[in-house]
Amino acid sequence: MTVQLPGADRAETERLRERIAETLRRSRRRTLALTECVDEAELVAQHSRIMSPLVWDLAHIGNQEELWLVRDVGGREPLREDIDQLYDAFKHARADRPALPLLNPEQARDYVGTVRDKVWDVLAHSPLRGNDLVHDGFAFGMIAQHEQQHDETMLATHQLRTGEAVLSAPPTPAARVRVTGEIVVPAGEFTMGTDTDPWALDNERPAHPVFVPAFAIDAAPITNEQFLAFLDDGGYERPELWSERGWAHRVEAGLTAPEFWEQDAGGHWWRRVFGTMQPLRAHQPVVHVCYFEAEAYAAWAGKRLPTEAEWEKAARFDPATGHSRRYPWGDADPDDSLANLGQSHLEPADVGAYPAGASPLGVHQLIGDVWEWTSSDFTPYPGFHAFPYREYSEVFFGGDYRILRGGSFGADQVAARGTFRNWDHPIRRQIFSGFRLARDLRSDEQ
Q1: Which helix (H) or strand (E) holds 270?
Q2: Statement to judge: residues 122 and 192 lie in one domain
Q3: pLDDT tier at 442 (50, 70, 90 boundaries)?
Q4: pLDDT for 444
Q5: Residues ≥6 apart with Cβ < 8 Å to 22
Q6: Mean pLDDT, to the nearest integer, of 420-442?
Q7: Are residues 407 and 355 in the same domain?
Q8: Which residue, of 212, 319, 372, 377, is most buried by count of CB atoms within 10 Å of its CB?
Q9: Residue 344 and residue 412: Cα distance in Å, rounded?
């Protein structure tokens, strides 16, 4: 049944419907691009034990879309109830998924296509208002975010696979301004989280006041050149720079440099980027470092990683208005002049490439390029309410996770707003992760 609305409301609802449709189309174009650029053998192969086969991600995307949009929102009969257990991420560890009786590539493509056809009909008939699941298109936005998050995961799988390059994208823009030094963030209260973003996920809610003491934060992420200085100074051989747990991991995993870095016989450093070897770019944000590496670098530099609240205040707080913005630059959706997102490029852009995307305080490249490690554990905000299911956030609270913020070049704008919270184990570095530093202010600086 289609709800009849007044003219103005009807027009607004139709604009929302088209925005949802374009967001879903954008996600699917990317999913198909990531799965159609390799042959069937590559789709079913497991390129790393910490990652699923690409074909599992593909069918999982379709299964989540069927569960939430076709069955729940649409109230339609199940299409493939028999595969629900296969594609439940909580039922099977990634390492075990290749042994499951998964849909083959042709079956997976047919399945996700059939599900999407059903979704278009559900979208056409949804009032996009009423209960919390459909109001403002939340369920559709949730599924778009889910697909884009798996697209970023599949992009990470592509980085881990061996063989010739199969992905391409234009080069990143050059730096437009020189960005160095620190930005002082004054003490005071700001609003963290959101109650107003209709597609914000449960762990971003509710909005709540947080007092943050004055601190300094780097104006830009740490670059390859800066990290190389740490490496050249014996950073990976100095246990005093590492936490006890971090040093144990460094030794056990044999870490000697960021993942995908290689040094040639002449002492020059190169970085493997989706099947191609590239000279290390000095002013590019360092990427593929784990939390423990970031923590050790911070100790070497005499600083620390920012807390999650510090990062968000630096990214969102506008001292002129006292309000928190949706993005560092304001509330407008990002475009190519503001941030490096959505796999528009296949690597981070050099520091200074997006001056229009800086925060009011003058902090650059907080959104896009690299996910930034913070020192904070993944915990709920005061007044947290699990929605629409506990397994999205609640079951992870209190686990061995650190928060990452800001999104990467592989994150889509639908999942990279200023309140978006990512989390992962501190040993992970196949993700597109980097960091920037913060420090407490001396008494004479406050």
Answers
A1: strand 269-273
A2: no
A3: confident
A4: 79
A5: none
A6: 97
A7: yes
A8: 372
A9: 9
Using DSSP bridges, classify how beta strands 433-434 and 438-440 pair: parallel, antiparallel or unpaired: unpaired
Q: For the domain that residue 84 is a member of, what is the CATH number?
A: 1.20.120.450
How high is the pLDDT of residue 388? Answer: 96
Residue 288 falls inside a structural domain: no
CA distance 370 to 102: 32
138 and 210 part of one domain: no
Q: Is the pLDDT of residue 446 over 90?
A: no
Would 275 be classed as within a structural domain?
no
* Residue 298 to residue 285: CA distance in whole angstroms: 15
Asked if 44 and 55 count as a contact pair (C-beta separation under 8 A), the reply is yes
154 and 191, same domain (yes or no): no
Average pLDDT, the chain: 96
- Give DSSP secondary structure letters for 371-413: EEEEEEE--PPTT----S-TTTTGGGTTSS-EEEES--TTS-G
Residues 333 and 426 in one domain: yes
The per-residue pLDDT for 9 is 86
Are residues 19 and 77 both part of a single domain? Answer: yes
**Long-range Cβ contact pairs of 139-143 (< 8 A, separation 24 or more):** 139/68, 139/69, 139/72, 139/73, 139/388, 140/20, 140/23, 140/24, 140/69, 140/73, 141/20, 141/23, 141/198, 141/199, 141/414, 142/68, 142/199, 142/201, 142/388, 143/24, 143/64, 143/65, 143/68, 143/69
The answer to the question of residue 94 being in a domain is yes
Q: What is the pLDDT of residues 17-66, one digit of tens each?
A: 999 999 999 999 999 999 999 999 999 999 999 999 999 999 999 999 99
pLDDT at residue 8 in the model? 58
Residue 156 has pLDDT above 70, yes or no: yes
Is residue 283 domain-resident? Answer: no
Is pLDDT at 6 greater than 50 in this prediction? no
- What the block records as the tokens of 144 is 């778009």
Asked if residues 441 and 184 have their Cβ atoms less than 8 Å apart, the reply is: yes
Residues 208 and 129 placed together within one structural domain of the fold: no
CA 151 to chain centroid, in Å, comes to 10
Domain match, 145 and 14 both: yes
Question: Phi and psi of 172, rounded to 5°?
Answer: -70, 155
**Sorting pLDDT into bands at 50, 70 and 90, what band is 2?**
very low
pLDDT digits (tens, 9 = 90+) for 230-275: 999 999 999 999 999 999 999 999 999 999 999 999 999 999 999 9
Q: What's the structural domain count of the chain?
A: 2
